[in-house]
Design brief:
Elements: E1 2-10, H1 14-32, E2 35-40, H2 45-51, H3 57-64, E3 68-73, H4 88-99, E4 101-109, H5 122-125, E5 129-135, E6 147-151, E7 154-158, H6 165-179, E8 185-190, H7 196-210, E9 216-221, H8 222-231, E10 238-241, H9 243-254, E11 266-269, E12 274-276, H10 295-307, H11 312-327, H12 341-350
Parallel strand pairs: 1-2, 1-3, 3-12, 5-10, 8-9, 8-10
Antiparallel strand pairs: 4-5, 4-11, 6-7, 11-12
Helix pairs in contact: 1-10, 1-12, 6-7, 8-9, 10-11, 11-12
Length: about 350
């Protein structure tokens, strides 16, 4: 297979982990006789510095023309001014919108060798294998109106939580589709006791559930879901929720695996171009030190092979190599080890 991949290394540790993921992808290409063409572009804070925009029209067009997009991380203190005309996060939201990716998949699986790395008690982590699906292009982050003004002599800020039924339906249908190859259980998270948008969310979830009688559906309020992620995460199989709830819950779920550096994500839509990125941030405090954990980025590339290119054997080979590396007690600093970013990637490549 030949594939065109756009690389957006971004800010902070992004370039470091993307570079190692490319080495793994090249090893896969050599092993399975594929050919990848890479196109590297700026996005995020580095793009603001260079072009005055966190995401240029040219970069978005290149991403839309690719087979898949690999993103490192964006943001950092340098661009944190809330009053700035542009911020790295705006580029990320615009990229998701421009690619039409409406569902963010975040698998959270606890490796037996890393149970002691999590702050939870080991018995809480037995059998944890969760897929969180977060709606990505609707809700509070995109609703209108939003802004700040003055009312009755007081400063006011407004954000709008808005959902259409079709936005809920398509992500819910994806959740049920993916659940069928797992434990056939979908947990829908909302706040239907308070929010009108959540009542619509639950209404649509019930409709999709009735159309899929072979898959169990349960409804959980978001505060209860946050609690149960810590007190009993093994009860969850596929969790699907709206944009802001998913943003918060997926970061909470990341501690189950012992480190945010371990976890990948895939953002998918109705188009063919997927967006693949680790769930961690740009970690400016360790940028340039060569100690970042590249596993989240490498596993994101495994998801790329599976979902965008349809290469299941290749995806599984990366995941097996990562598992074998962890089992062999290879660790970066976030997991209490001493391996550099490059050394961790090398350990994985040797096991492909």
């Amino acid at each position: 297979m030949k594939a065109k991949l756009v690389l957006l290394p971004g800010d902070g540790i992004g370039p470091e982990v993307v570079a190692e993921a490319v080495r793994v992808m090249d090893a896969i290409a050599g092993k399975f006789k594929h050919e990848w063409t890479y196109q590297e572009r700026l996005m995020g804070g580095c793009s603001i510095d260079q072009f005055g925009s966190s995401l240029t029209e040219e970069t978005l067009a290149d991403c839309q023309a690719a087979d898949a997009v690999v993103l490192g991380a964006v943001g950092g203190p340098k661009w944190d001014d809330p009053n700035a005309k542009d911020r790295p996060e705006r580029g990320l939201l615009a990229l998701r919108k421009g690619l039409g990716v409406f569902a963010n998949l975040r698998p959270v699986k606890v490796h037996p060798a890393l149970i002691d790395s999590s702050p939870l008690k080991p018995e809480k982590l037995q059998g944890v294998d969760i897929l969180v699906i977060r709606e990505l292009t609707g809700g509070l982050y995109f609703g209108w109106p939003k802004g700040r003004d003055s009312k009755d002599g007081r400063e006011r800020a407004v954000d709008t939580l808005e959902y259409y039924d079709y936005e809920i339906r398509r992500v819910m249908e994806l959740a049920f589709k993916l659940a069928k190859s797992r434990k056939k259980k979908v947990t829908s998270v909302d706040k239907a006791n308070v929010l009108e948008s959540s009542r619509l969310w639950r209404q649509v979830a019930v409709q999709i559930g009735k159309a899929n009688p072979d898959t169990a559906l349960e409804h959980v309020l978001v505060d209860t879901a946050a609690m149960r992620l810590i007190t009993g995460p093994a009860w969850i199989d596929v969790m699907v929720t709206e944009n802001m709830f998913g943003d918060i819950l997926t970061d909470e779920a990341s501690v189950l695996a012992g480190s945010m550096g371990m976890l990948p994500s895939a953002s998918l839509g109705e188009g063919r171009v997927g967006l693949y990125e680790p769930i961690h941030g740009s970690a400016p405090d360790i940028a340039g030190k060569g100690i970042a954990n590249p596993i989240g980025m490498i596993l994101s590339c495994a998801l790329l092979l599976r979902h965008s290119l349809g290469l299941e054997q290749e995806a599984a080979s990366i995941e097996k190599a990562v598992d074998a590396t962890i089992t062999a007690d290879a660790r970066t600093a976030d997991l209490g080890g001493k391996l550099t970013t490059r050394q961790m990637a090398e350990e994985i490549i040797q096991r492909l």
